[in-house]
Amino acid sequence: MPRKRVAAFWTQYTQLATQYPEAILLFQMGFHYEAYRGDAEIVARVLDRDPGTRQISLDNQVAMIVILRRELVGTIAELNAKGYIVAVADQVPGIMSQGTRARQIRSVSRGVSQLEP
Question: How far apart are CA 7 and CA 34, in angstroms?
Fold first, then answer.
């Protein structure tokens, strides 16, 4: 049986998510951030929004929620206030990986203290 091809961003997301499995990962997609699967459900509940879905392969979708760039700081603060650790994966300008913008985790925060730059 042939392997199902997944979107390049999804491969990056799952690799980054393993670096901080205890954190909610906010993943930059252009001018906004997205959270997926269980993270999306948590963010949706905290922000009192309905999650949507994102196509990751021809026949597979995952729960997803969008966080606008202008909402990022407030969203992190709300999640931290509820006791969640938040990792932010930003796009790396000019660097491509697997046909999409490369990303790296730029910050991880818990409450008022930032764990890493």
Answer: 15
pTM of the model: 0.86
Q: Which residues contact 116 (CB under 8 A, 6 or more apart)?
A: 105, 107, 108
Joined together, the tokens standing for residue 83 give 């006791």
Looking at the structure, give the CATH architecture of the domain made up of residues 8-116: 3-Layer(aba) Sandwich (3.40)
Q: What is the DSSP letter of 46?
A: H
Are residues 88 and 94 in contact, defined by beta-carbon separation less than 8 angstroms? no
pLDDT in the model for residue 1: 44
pLDDT tens per residue, range 37-55? 999 999 999 999 999 999 9
